[in-house]
Amino acid sequence: MWASYCIVKMLNEASPSLNFRVRTCSVQNMVAHGTLPVPEGGGLDIQRFYQCHSTESTYQKRMFPGLIYRSRSLKVVILMFCSARVVLTGAKTEDDIVKGWDFIVNLTKDFYTSKNST
User: Fold this and answer.
1) What CATH fold (topology level) applies to the domain 28-117?
2) What integer pLDDT is reported at residue 116 of this predicted model?
3) How far apart are CA 84 and CA 104, in angstroms?
4) β strands within 9-113, DSSP E
5) How many CA atoms lie within 13 A of 9 on its CB side?
6) Torsion-angle region of residue 41: left (phi > 0), alpha (psi -120 to 50) or beta?
7) CA pair distance 87, 33, nearest whole angstrom
8) Pick from 49, 116, 39: nearest CA to 80
9) Which residues contact 113 (CB under 8 A, 6 or more apart)?
10) How far apart are CA 42 and CA 12, in angstroms?
């Protein structure tokens, strides 16, 4: 919502003869990113994760280097990478982000790799 007011301010400054204002505003998509708590120097075995969770995942490493995870119980789509970096997208509230993060941290625990196995 703050961004919409900033845009209106810029428009009003750029065109002083016109009067812009915000009538309505709603959040359509929030994006968050983070790194899973893997061991130092480790990563995420997304190939093995995909083998175990293929009904809710898409992974085609020649097309895209990350795994796309869509769960019916979550309001977010999660992108996961071997580096243990994660992107959550599609949220409309901060609570959607928090629930998605907590869910994926618990779900991926068994798929962390150590420095020696990457």
Assistant:
1) TATA-Binding Protein (3.30.310)
2) 57
3) 11
4) 30-35, 43-44, 57-58, 67-70, 77-80, 85-91, 112-113
5) 6
6) left
7) 4
8) 49
9) 38, 39, 42, 43, 44, 45
10) 50
Rounded CA-CA distance 96/30 in Å is 9
CA distances from 27 to 4, 12, 86, 90, 93 (A): 11, 23, 21, 10, 8
What is the residue extent of each domain of the chain? 28-117
Share of the chain above pLDDT 90, in %: 90
Q: From CA 70, how far away is CA 33, in angstroms rounded?
A: 16
Cα separations in angstroms, 98 against 9, 32, 88, 91, 109? 32, 10, 10, 10, 17
How far is Cα 20 from Cα 117, in angstroms, rounded to an integer?
Answer: 57
Task: Report phi then psi at 94, rounded to 5.
Answer: -65, -35
Mean pLDDT of 96-111: 97
Report yes or no: 25 and 92 within 8 Å, Cβ to Cβ.
Answer: no
Q: Please write the tens of the pLDDT for every residue from 26-64.
A: 888 999 999 999 999 999 999 999 999 999 999 999 999
